[in-house]
Amino acid sequence: DGVVVSEKVKSNNLDVSELEAEEKGAEEERPRESDSNILDVSSDYPRDKHISIQRHLADLEKLADLREDEKKPCPLCPEEKFKACYSHKLHRHLQNLHWKVSVEFEGYRMCICHLSCRPVKPNLVGDQTLAKMGAHYHCIICSATIIRRTDMIGHINRHVNKGETESRFITVRAPKSSYEVVKESATDVQVLPNHSTPQKTDSYFNPKMKLNRQLIFCALAVLAGERKPIECLDAFGATGIMGLQWAKHLRSSVKVTINDCNENSVTMIKENCHLNKMKVKLNIKEEDNDETVGDGEENSDTIEVTKMDANVIMHLRSFDFIHLDPFGTSVNYLDSAFRNVRNLGIVSLTSTDISSLYAKAQHVALRHYGCNIVRTEYYKELAARTVIAAVTRAAARCNKGIEVLLAVALEHFVLVVVRVLRGPTPADDSAKKVRYLIHCQWCEERVFQKEGNMVEENPYQQLPCDCHGSMPGKTAVLLGPLWSGALFNTGFLRRMLLEAVQYGLDEAQPLLKTLVCEAECTTLKHFSTHSPGDESKQEECGVYIKTPNTSAESYLVHGKRKSEEVLRGAAKRQRAEHSAEHPPFYYNIHRHSIKGMNMPKLNKFLNYLSEAGYRVSRTHFDPMGVRTNAPLAQFKTVLMKYSTPTYVGAQAEGPVHLPGEIQVGEEVPAAAEIKVEEAELAEDGKSGVGTAVFTQSYPTHCAAD
Question: What dotted CATH number matches 180-284+301-451+459-491?
Fold first, then answer.
């Protein structure tokens, strides 16, 4: 009996083991069956290609297991879409429906798949439409499933541009041979082939922003001449070209930190540092001992590279110079920038959201900047004042005031450079300069609203024009709040011009000369670059600096805070120079030209306005703009006075004179005589004849540009 019992136990054990083996085999077969339909595969291992991705049509037919005497289903279609059929019909189906509409990549064909790999929203039309909507392609590189063939081709091209060419979920960097090397201001940087049209995860390099980089470099060079060494931050490094230019040219005067939150960009910044023979000091959190530079080994050729959010690094550390150049608006980073920036430091920011700043998307400007703006003739200066108003409010929240050193608005960007003045008093003074603007929509006259909290009965009285009295309805709009103070610091701009000449920045020099003229509101064309022999020493807070003989206001401090005497002296200088502040806004000479009259040359017109007793200059915001303190009525009067008729021939009586026979000196008297004759005819009750003579003498033509 014992033998029989033992044999039964053995047989039971064998049955149990066989059942367990069958269950394990079933569990192993389940994921194999679902691999063809499910794409969630671990990224640690190379994933198997989907069954729709094959090299040859024969491989796809082998997958279908074609046999002449049996009906086989299509491996890429569900049974409700394509029923099982014989081999000849299934061969045509695979060739025409799946193989011909495939996407080719590196010898593989990504055939269209009709399986239930992609979730489809419920459709009430029918099963046929539902099956058609479920057709898709499987990417050979990543786990994406894409419906359209053209979208799949673009998806593969984006992978190639980013260097992702292996069939894995991990990102594979492109080989160094696929990078392009770009040189700017004696600095070499590697960029991706798609640097001009990058994707979200790529590093962006825009050659059109070269002028922007040169202006920021000049501002940093001026600050480096005041105190050294200074700690500067490029919060959005991308390729790192801006920080590399700072470290390569200014050397020991600056300690450069380049930050970016994208891992690929940080890797590219490190490679560009080595390309320019710069040592890299990595972040403490990173564990790359080969490239880490110890504190005792730091020198002028060392750049610190960090990988973190821009708000985080500006909250954690203090800097003397911060530059913000995000994609779009920079208002999300202003609070962090002013939190730890040192006293008398500089914050520069580049805004590229020109669609909202230039009043093309007014609702976006209201959402980002809290400012109501409309499209005007001075829309570029309006954009600069909008950004400065947001900067002023952010600084005031941190008990800091600002002094605007530079404001530039060009085609692609708006650049604002401000100096930070610590303390509640400068913060209050700066906040008072944020006001509303009253803008007339008929004649485009404008004026800042007066200070005070009292409500005026008729705000239209503040406008110099009388459009509200002569036109029905409401004629003006309230824009803002905007910055109402100066946009430029003349002394700082002159020192920037000296730095541009010293470092050979040819593109920035013409713009800086225009900005100096605009800041002083003068028409001077020639500037002296001041040789070193013409410089004199100036003392501020016990520190001597070299300054040109021209009056350039310099803020220099040995420690973090200025003494009360220096602050009082700076306040006195600001009050003394307030009267010489450039007038706000400008007029476009073409916008206010007289119909049927030829305008004078712009430079001559500037002289005419200056002779009339007004301050006048050109502006970088508009090539045909005139910055002046003259009211619009006086502006039009001077323009009318020195304009000449477009066509002076075809008089009512007398021979027709060609333009070549008319002397230049006789044009204005002739116009004056006709005006007198017209007035006399009007007095005699023959104004209709006078009008006919005037119309025939001066046909309606547009003023020549």
Answer: 3.40.50.150
